[in-house]
Amino acid sequence: MFPRYLINGCDIKKIHDFCDCIIIGSGIAGLSTAIRISKYAKVKVLTKSNLSESTTWYAQGGIAAAVKRPDWWKVHYADTIEAGQGLCDSNAVEKLVKSAPRMIEDLVELGITFDITGGEISLTTEGGHTYPRVLHAGGDATGEEIEKKLVKYSGTFSNIDFYSEHLAVDIITDSGRVAGIIALDIKNNSVHIHPCSNIVIASGGIGQLYDVSTNPSISTGDGIAMAYRAGASIKDIEFIQFHPTVFKTNDGHLFLITEALRGEGAYLRDSSGRRFMVGRHPKAELAPRDIVVREMVRVMSEQHLHFIFLDATHVPEKLLKVRFPNIIAKLKENGLSLTTDLIKVFPAAHYLNGGIKTDLKGRTDIAGLYACGETAATGAHGANRLASNSLIEGLVFGWEISRDIIRKIKNKNKCSNDRILAKINEFAKSIGSGKSMENLPPVNISELIPDFRKMMSTNVGILRDEKSLVSAREYINNTAKKYLCPVPANKETIEFANMLTVGSLISKAALLRTESRGTHLRNDWPKKDDTSWKKHIILKNDESHFEPVE
Asked: Of the residues 36, 289, 294, 522, which is catalytic?
């Protein structure tokens, strides 16, 4: 749909000095990895916004780890496997849950203070968890607390260079391995090249492809799109998790209400006041998210509503004030109270379960290219992520990546670096000889994006079918051909090109998977089919193939 290198026919403003490792993204996965590697080598962190603007910041609920008996890793493992609906990689899940307590210790050493009750770390329950194992900080501001500390701590390392407002556009490769990054300096709208031998994509999710999403504005799927153009495999991208409880404020903005509120006893009710999750799943409101969302969609359809009700009026007010100060404050701004009012909520695009295919060390099928965090398909989530497994996954697999890169750095040789620099100089000369961007008709991308998001929500949202998915693919291909071939070198059009690329991948995989499983629901194939579809869909180089579950 797009050329191998998105930007062509443009001037290269600068070729930067060689660097052992470039990390794209400044959330928990990217910064924790940068901190570890910087103790051994120079690291660059590129982020298209400011350092704190990441999905991590908006993670209210907490971070999951089996840190207190009777809970232990085997129970956390079983809960994760069950939530994943048969598509989890058992080895990835085992690595995740066994490593989780150590990652919590690392966060505490960094100065992150988790909430305490009765002299012990406070734990809560969220959807799909057998025991309370979700640690939280600042009540319902866990992600914000972690991100603040990581940004502050990473700033003390002289070996980390930060490039804010630099949009990574494409990965330069040479003989099947990475050689550098093409990046857009957003402030100056200039194109730069950063030579390197290792790249870690930790650029977050894809929520901005939908018109109703919990994700920040930066979540446009850039990392997945650039990895795909470079020839990396994309795995299980049809599985998009919708968060059950999102609230629309009086000014039209969306505000996520953490699942931890249901963990502390809140109910979901229909228009008649009935708790519709009772009898639908043994854990009722704390069933895995895909099951809760499926029931919400059914109830809203039957009752011709665009919302259901979240009820915390029976939960002790003292507990609510301690655990959910941000939610209470936001609702108060909108004339509502958790203690007296039923809150109208509905599902919104929240988390991508699939992404760039990696092994247990975070490696992709391009040498020197790694991925971690939401942008990666490590195999830990399968068809549906267990609540609060996202932050801990970024830490665990970021740690594995840092160990692998540090090992390589210790054994590096200067000849390979010189070869990379020679390739970069050769590449810089060639890229400027492509199709000229001059005299292209002006395109108002800001008018195209809302229509694209509505199309994705309608055709590739919570419910899909063959007709809607075929229509989505036609829309995406026609839009790309008409407006974005070639792609001008500016942030808005590059992001939109990435959104179209990822939208095409999602719709293709969803069309191939003729069953309903986890967060992938097909109206025309409503049942799970283990005989035919207990396998992964891999998309690479405009082709698709299938892999058995490990």
From this structure: 289
